[in-house]
Specification:
The chain has 101 residues and is mostly helical. 48% of the residues lie in helices and 4% in strands. The two termini are 21 Å apart.
Length: 101
């Protein structure tokens, strides 16, 4: 496992319940500000293995990223269960719920 991956996993494990962060913030905190797509890959391949709170990672547009598998609905439900609220357009209020590592 490379250093970026190790750092990204460590950052993701620190996201508190009731907060979200972005792929880009995780990438920057892990040492590669342009590594947001790498964070997506890590989440996709390692969430279960490393027990990552994947549901707490959203895109910079303050929304859950579109997914084909239907996990969008599950992600939203998990976030709502943690107290995160969504606007009528599906946005998360970053002033209230954003965690910056």
């Amino acid at each position: 496992m490379d250093d970026f991956t190790k750092q990204a996993i460590a950052v993701m494990k620190r996201i508190p319940s009731g907060k979200v962060t972005t792929y880009g913030f995780i990438a920057a905190a892990a040492g590669n500000a342009s590594g947001a797509r790498q964070v997506v890959r890590i989440l996709h391949s390692s969430s279960g293995k490393h027990d990552l709170p994947w549901q707490r990672v959203v895109n910079r547009k303050q929304k859950i990223s579109p997914q084909k598998s239907g996990s969008h609905t599950k992600q939203r439900q998990l976030l709502e269960d943690e107290g995160i609220e969504f606007s009528a357009t599906g946005k998360i209020d970053f002033e209230r719920f954003l965690w910056i590592p």
